Amino acid sequence: MPYTIPNNSCVGCDNCRPQCPTGAIKLENDEYWIDPCLCNNCEGYYPEPQCVIACPTKSPMPWQAKKGRCKVEPRDATSSDLFSNGKSNPFASAIAIWEACNVLAQRTSLNWQTDAEGYLCYGRQVKQGRGAIAFHIQDPCKVSDRVTDLAAIEELDIRAACIHLIFAAHATALEQPWEQEFAIDERQIEKYLGLEKRKDLSKNAKLALMKNIVQQTCSLIVSIDWPQQGRVQGFSVKQSRLWHLVDIQHHFQEDNMGCKYLVGLTFKVRAGIWAQYFSNKQACKERTGFYQYGSLPKTLLTTVMSIWQQHEGAVRLMLWLLFKTKMGKEQRITVPTLLRIAYGEEKVALAARQREERKRLLRTFENDLEVLNHLGIKPIFDPVTYPPEIQPLWAKLTGIPEDPDEALEFWINDGGGENRLTDTGPRGKWNLLMNARILSFELPPEWEQQNSESEKKQRRTIKSRRKPKTTGDLLGEQILQARQNLKLSQRELAKLTGKSQSWIRDVENGRLKAKLEDQVLLRKVLNIA
After folding, report:
1. Helices 312-324, 95-106: crossing angle, 10 deg rounding
2. Can you give the pLDDT at residue 449?
3. 3-class secondary structure per residue, 397-415
4. Given this model, what pLDDT does residue 330 score?
5. Are 473 and 513 in contact (CB under 8 A)?
6. Helices assigned H by DSSP within 107-235
7. Pairing of strands 61-62, 3-4
8. Exposed, middle or buried: residue 82 (CB in 10 Å: 0-12, 13-18, 19+)?
9. Residues paired with 181 in a beta bridge
10. pTM attached to this predicted model
């Protein structure tokens, strides 16, 4: 249990602060307080808390959990809440964001190398070897030192990937995220991650968790060498922070003894210089930069927070597929690729050599695929390379009839056949799986929205002949005139029709033609005969 300092009995000698091995004792406005996120009673350093020993009045006392509601003190306004529709929110999906998500999720499973200066670095080539991206990890306890030990990378919390994605969502709401800050407090993070429902965690434990994973997210340092791509000139980013943690504001509640209890946190964050090249709306319009974004499902964040301990492999696959599926649903993915993403090269290589490890890894993989299927991320097996004989049992059971009589007949026929549904896998199943592929993943509705929007955008960029409008079609000029007659803005009309504002604008300008069902809806909303 951490300690706290009653300022009413504190003489201000400052003997305790230099003695604290974790730097938990802070001095603000001539008052002392102990950060419960850092205080660990000097465990691992000294047999007794040093603040108690150094204090002439023995003021430090064990921290007591506050009961009842915490007094809400005035705070600076934070950035607008995400997930206004309750389902998803746009987020920056550039390669820097994807690779950073992989770093936080896969950690030591990646191929870390020691650079010329002796620091650990993970990197890979991009754009067919014409460019490269690399990451260092800053030691959260130090200001400038990058880590040199794999143990520090292993300590990264996979839940920090959720904070990383939340930051990427905030970046899309800013015109210049590399210059503008956004603020997010513990109440918003609780809501996004579903922590408000965790009654097993105390307020102090939640604050410590949030502070830890935010600092881990902001410990990433990225370097990018990007080649010329179309009209966009090549550029380089050298060892720049992915996210700048500008400030952490601590919010307190003070008792009658002068003990300051931490009850809230506000984080002020700014995107790194990478955003000037990959999350730049104006530069994208001028075709001198990129503005790459996708759709972040809220359920992904809450799911990661609930299953990260039991099914880490499934979490890694979910985070990887969030970006992979943005490139196209029909991309075929090999089983070895999924195994490396979920468990790392080392475990896959060990399974290839040892039979017991191979059996254990296959059971885990099939279990993680079942978890994804249960969450609505359903794998579509290639019938040629991934036939039913080597598919997981849960996948085979999906074809059983729901009607009891039909199900009974199904099992009778299955038992009388040469090959039964519940038979073990064939000999050499591992080798067969090494050549197997998954055609695609069926995605939940909030994930599908991402693909449909990207497909629409791609279709708009393809130059094609405009089909002659039929006499019965609703013209863009008619929609514009009817909207203006009702004194509606494009945004208001978009809300009434359940469409996006850009869709309304493109239909009015004649760039898009509304489908028949959409024309019926527009006629009804705008009172067009």
Report:
1. 170
2. 53
3. HCCCCCCHHHHHHHHHHHH
4. 57
5. yes
6. 150-154, 160-171, 186-193, 203-217
7. antiparallel
8. buried
9. 270
10. 0.75
